[in-house]
Amino acid sequence: MPILSYLGIFVFAVTGVFKARTKHFNLISAIILTFAMAYGGGTTCDLLIGIKHVSWVNDNFIIILEAL
Questions:
Q1: 17-62 pLDDT, tens per residue?
Q2: How deeply is 54 buried, as exposed, middle or buried, from its count of CB atoms within 10 A (0-12, 13-18, 19+)?
Q3: Orientation angle between helical segments 27-48 and 60-67, nearest 10 degrees
Q4: Distance of alpha carbon 11 from its chain centroid, rounded?
Q5: CB of 5 within 8 A of CB of 66?
Q6: 8 A C-beta contact, residue 15 and residue 30
Q7: Residues near 47 by Cβ (< 8 Å), separated by ≥ 6?
Q8: I need a labelling partner for 24 at 20 to 30 A (CA). Which of 32, 35, 44, 53 fits?
Q9: What integer pLDDT is reported at residue 9 of this predicted model?
Q10: How far apart are CA 28 and CA 35, in angstroms?
């Protein structure tokens, strides 16, 4: 199940990169948008499926995955 969580966060991050590219954001704005989309999307997904503890708070691998 963690593989699906990592895949979901990665997909949200890629979506943020594509949205920043279409809006012609600078690098810092693109990074902020990417982090916001990845963590916001992952948090929303966790809350909708009923997980009380959000996964990115407890897992350091997600931060490493986001930095790639």
A1: 888 888 888 988 888 888 888 778 777 877 888 877 776 677 777 6
A2: middle
A3: 140
A4: 7
A5: no
A6: no
A7: 54
A8: 44
A9: 77
A10: 11
